[in-house]
Design brief:
Four Helix Bundle (Hemerythrin (Met), subunit A), UPF0149 family protein, mainly alpha, YgfB-like_sf, YgfB-like, 0% strand
């Protein structure tokens, strides 16, 4: 059975709490995904160092926390580069109350923007392609998501739609940037010159 990010949420939350880290798993997964979209984060020590700096961790990650963080990184990398592009956001289980999941989605988006900003330091937003600017703008808007009032079925469906939108925007950022930067990327299609 393929591993999914869901199985990492609670164990990682426990590891972060025991390390005295106040950032949640969703936010750190967002940071990881944002870094990966800019081509950073694939080197284990580099990634763990960036996450330690982000969380202001005193000392090193525990072995269990390191293993969990690298495992969710690996899953994100596989999702970003696989044929099906099935990125799964690291959010609380569907059984958790809607408010917790909405808050985690906002944190995931905040983390993504931090990771993206770290990886693309020195680039101005205005220099990015319009589609990329729009995707980042959508993620920024979702990071400000309001907590639900009553957890109704309608709000549940709205959450699903917003989470899917965040996922698709993150995929778009990755495909626009990281895939275009690959040395084996095909050159942009131009006019065919016939001799």
């Amino acid at each position: 059975m393929p591993r999914t990010t869901a199985e990492f949420f609670e164990p990682l939350a426990d590891e972060l709490a025991s390390a005295g880290v106040r950032h949640g798993p969703a936010e750190l997964h967002g940071v990881i995904c944002g870094l990966l979209s800019t081509g950073l984060g694939s080197v284990d020590a580099e990634l763990l160092g960036m996450l330690a700096a982000h969380t202001e961790l005193a000392g090193q990650w525990s072995a269990d926390a390191s293993t969990a963080l690298l495992a969710v990184r690996d899953l994100a990398q596989e999702a970003y580069t696989g044929d099906d592009l099935e990125l799964v956001l690291l959010l609380p289980d569907d059984e958790e109350e809607l408010g917790s999941r909405v808050a985690a989605l906002g944190q995931w988006c905040e983390g993504f923007l931090v990771g993206f900003g770290t990886g693309s330091a020195g680039k101005r937003d205005a220099d990015l392609p319009p589609g990329l600017q729009e995707a980042l703008s959508d993620i920024a808007a979702i990071s400000q998501i309001a907590l639900p009032e009553d957890g109704s079925e309608e709000e549940e469906q709205m959450f699903e739609q917003v989470a899917e939108h965040a996922r698709m925007a993150a995929m778009m950022v990755f495909t626009e940037l990281a895939l275009a930067a690959r040395p084996d990327a095909p050159p942009p299609a131009g006019p065919v010159v016939k001799h």
